[in-house]
Amino acid sequence: MPSMEQVPAFYRDPYLSRLQTRVIASGRDDRGVWIELADTIFYPEGGGQPADRGTVAGVPVVDVQKGPQGIRHYLQGEPPSGEVTLELDWQRRYDHMQQHTGQHLLSAIAEDRFGWKTTAFHLGAELCDVELDVPSLSPPQLAELEAWVAGEIRAARAVRVHYLEPEEVANLPKLRSRGLPEGHRGKVRLVEIEGVDVATCGGTHLANTAEIEALALVATEPMRGGTRVYFVAGNRLRRRLHAHEARNAALRKLLGAGDQELATVAEAKLAELAELARQLRRTQEELAVLLGEKLATSSERVVVFHREDAELTFLQRLARAFLEAQPQGVLLATAGKEGHGYFLLAANRPDIKQLGELVASELAGRGGGSGSIYQGKAAHLAQREQVKEKLAEAMSR
Fold first, then answer.
1. Fold for domain 9-88?
2. Domain 94-242 in CATH: superfamily?
3. Does the pTM exceed 0.85?
4. Quick one: CATH architecture of 284-396?
5. DSSP state of 213
6. Burial class (CB in 10 A: 0-12, 13-18, 19+), 127
7. Burial level of 141, CB count in 10 A (0-12/13-18/19+)?
8. Where on the phi/psi map is residue 151: left (φ > 0), alpha (ψ -120 to 50), or beta?
9. What pLDDT sits at residue 4?
10. What is the pLDDT of residues 271-303, one digit of tens each?
């Protein structure tokens, strides 16, 4: 393997969370302020695994990327110099190690036991996923795959790292690999799960599959002719379970039902709400018609109506009822609150567009329309009485 000086600390000991080293370069690019170090415990983003976080001399590390010459650590603050202490966000790193080692195990079993090859991998903040070259997976198939993974976690398989020359790698009888990074030179890094898998990989991993603790397959979706399988492992799985239990407890209290009945009771409540919404819409339509007919009895030349809690559809139904009852009438209807409202002008007049534009201008709004309706949004609803007078003047000219 490469000499210990050539391998960064995050590879020499992925369990190391603190390191003394020195700054050897610094600068700024489009990502921000960066430093390069003589050695580092911070893994740079790559191979589906996110970058580590932590601090350098107390300054937060916000990103880690491979630069043209070395590994760039992007900082939230002024770059330190000289000798520095690195502190790793260990919980984040260990989570990544659990998820990534779990992915190796999942991919190996999916291919060897079921013939489903992994074509892509992503380690997300909440869920991880692999893309398998199988059109779909049934619940029984997922359960069987999950059970096989659980068995290998219980088997406590050792996880080891090897460095081989490219020609040695080419002669390996069985190797899982999606290819080496472009421009790769030197020895190839392999991660072995004893008796289960050997794969090219540049990520950080656990020392034993038992540390994965558990792995659950939580969802699937079609993806590029294959199937994306979402999973969680380790501490993340336990956190997810606790969150689900807390939500279930809240739902049990709200719905007055046990876990097995929650979906049924929720479905019934949603159906009830949908029916109530339909009844409310019918009632609002009937109310709009009655109000429109009542407004049509007014002797005012321009009738003004406002309802704060109404929607534009309510105003439209109101206006149609008004004009049906009083074809020669003019209605200015508004809804909403000052600063955020609607207006509607209804009149069987050839100058409806000009009158509508006048209303929009006076109410600090904008709108449009056709036929006997001109409508839009308005900001100054308190001006409607003044607008009524200006409308009357415009209609008299």
1. Elongation Factor Tu (Ef-tu); domain 3 (2.40.30)
2. Threonyl-trna Synthetase; Chain A, domain 2 (3.30.980.10)
3. no
4. Roll (3.10)
5. -
6. middle
7. middle
8. alpha
9. 45
10. 999 999 999 999 999 999 999 999 999 999 999
